[in-house]
Amino acid sequence: MQTWTLINYFDVWGNAQDGYEVNNQCAEAEDIIITDGATNKDILNFLVSIHFLRTSDMRRIAVENMGDWIEIYERKGMMPICGLHPNRL
Question: What is the CA radius of gyration of the chain?
């Protein structure tokens, strides 16, 4: 079973044309369990259920599995919102 940490990218600089840089971040929640069969929609629904995101509308929010971590973006402009990083044993 893999557990994850939710990282809030609360200070993001930049724009859609030039790109974004996460200037500051913090851990919001630890020991989140994401099952192997979880869909991107399941992940967004979970983030809404813990009141981190306001919507799980996949027309507005994008989920990208980067292999070792998961990134969540605003779909318009692709501004990063948060990341899910695996906890290491």
Answer: 13
The pLDDT score that the predictor gives to residue 66 is: 87
For residue 56 the two structure tokens come to 């799980």
Closest CA to 36 of 71, 78, 3: 3
What pLDDT does 80 receive?
Answer: 98
Residue that has been written with the tokens 């919102």 in this structure? 81
Taking CA atoms, 64 is separated from 17, 18, 25, 89, in Å, by: 19, 20, 18, 24
pLDDT in tens, 44-84: 999 999 999 999 999 999 999 988 899 999 999 999 999 99
Q: Are 70 and 64 in contact, with CB atoms under 8 Å apart?
A: yes
Which residues fall within 8 angstroms of residue 17, CB to CB, at 6 or more apart? none
Strands 61-65, 19-33: parallel, antiparallel or unpaired by DSSP? Answer: unpaired
